[in-house]
């Protein structure tokens, strides 16, 4: 594939001039991309991969500075190029697909207008020609019912469809280079697999070169010819995908490759007492409309689900967004009103009032997905952790509380000396540990873990998973583990429920679900998560 | 959308009722009455007058009587302008106030939006700071301070424009009151436009527009402007209320025969029916205009659907 490079990045430096001083985001990155080649830029958050990608078309905000380096498209220097030059290249010769399908389209224009604009701009097409071409593009990228979708506004389309529109827009002028910045990160796994298959197919058809930015090594393995591993603004390793995967040179690459959550969970003994039991749990949200807000229908978020949790068990609940898995978790903890019977430690709790629930709350704790939003920014982490103790053990002295906080922080491997700091001073992974410490300080029996690892980088995820498993072994905890990420669930859970549209699709031992799935939907999820190639051409929904 | 409009109109009835009730009783709480003068009237004459206007009846009776009148579109007679009904006076003053208000609104939107956009695109330059400083002053200085200053400079010192009066609507007489009325609106809309423009220019879909290869000019005109103006559109409702209250003061200062001046004089004279009539009329106008603004917003933003 070693033809002449179409895109060359040489010793690129990118700084951000902020109020607090200059921050270097990219420090001397070099790579080149040949015609028809796919190069993946891989790295975790903060590695500078997206900044590098946005630099190519000069799309960074004005605070970005380029003290050194060069970016050449077809021999043409892009850094400091005149606006006119950039405009003839952007969207025409080099096109880009972004990470955020929900916000990257103009909400006030129809998708046809937005895609057609590229064609009228670069190809001088009139309305009719452009419309015909847009329709052709929509069919090409697999937008169902393309003709009717032309006049749709972005909010009327799903995330996957919006990303298809973005891809159609990028392909409109048949560019030489397509830059895809985490194009599937915001999408569900089955949709992710479809979009990747689409990009691969289109790349071959058009003979484009593709620069692919991702944190997901599974995707790299299947789609890239060559890979650049980035860390803290530098390229630490570069080479053909096969070589890098088979024989990683840099320790960081090895760490990344190793960062798949591993192991599995043994089920608790058969005679372990039942801790929590739910029968026919139903959460229906009323849809109101018309005069005086009559109830005109229901969204069945959770539709008659039953489950049993024994002490020491981890029940994984998997499903894509909108499947009702988080709603189910909240209903079981009575954080949300529901129908159906729920028993905890043998006593019915479905009829209890919030006040009656209070003494039980310390036994059932929650860790949420968002480690940035779920810790109060105005409290030190010590105060956050101690707050539960103040509620549940009002007689505890300040010194005893302090000791409990220190012990909880040590348990999650955070230096207790940092307990007077505020949440924003910690990284995502550390915050999630703090959230776990906040739950653990009350010595609960049962933890609801709602996507606790989803906002974290893979290498950090692995550590959080290991921590949760160690705590479970030490204290005999029972987990309800909710996640869309099957790799994490495989490592954590001994029993799994697969949910779709508020219903249980499949329920069984983890081993059976992962190795001998009985339902098509489970198979699709597994294929999309673990083996992207299997789903080439697969169409779900 | 039509049924939504009807629903909103139906909801405005209780709002209006509350406005009427509160202003009716507040008005009566104020000391004095419409027929108190320098010279005390003989008791029997006063009793006759009060009886003629039903003011001798219990307050609740007067209240329900007034409500009944409003339901039939009757705002009653003015107590001070003999031989005129309140409706006569409102219809005489309204065209004048309306003209002032429309011009002020137009100036407010045109200049406010232009200044705001310009400042946003020149963000953090000296020009931006200058314009936003001016806008801050425009918001901070009340119009009863601004109006006399304008009169002093352009009317007295420079003698370019008349200092007051209406002169049957001569253009020169309108300039200063319209400017005095529009300035705070220009200032407020400019600040708001700047803020929302800056926010929109940093959003993902603007990055997409740039990635398409559009010139910065087209990015702003085709993609940023409409989004940035949505908050301005929703401000037009409160802006109407602001202009109406502003006109009450401005008409008084410049001696313009609009509703605002009747209102102030009626309040001073305890002309109960005229005050009430003006309040109800303006209350209904503001409610109506807010509804119109919401409907326009729905047309501009496809994400809003009034299908209830």
Automatic annotation (TrEMBL), chain B:
Domain of life: Bacteria
Gene3D superfamilies assigned: MetI-like
Single GO biological process annotation from the record: transmembrane transport
GO cellular component, one term: plasma membrane
Protein name: Oligopeptide transporter permease
Residue ranges of every copy of the ABC transmembrane type-1 domain listed in the record: 94-297
UniProt family annotation: Belongs to the binding-protein-dependent transport system permease family. OppBC subfamily.
Species annotation: Marinobacter lutaoensis
Protein keywords: Cell membrane, Membrane, Transmembrane, Transmembrane helix, Transport
Membrane topology per record: Multi-pass membrane protein
Pfam families referenced in this protein's UniProt entry, alphabetically: BPD_transp_1
InterPro entries per UniProt: MetI-like, MetI-like_sf
Record field: transmembrane: 12-30, 100-121, 133-158, 170-190, 228-254, 274-300
Signal sequence residues: none
Localization terms from the record: Cell membrane
NCBIfam families to which the protein is assigned, alphabetical: PRK09471.1
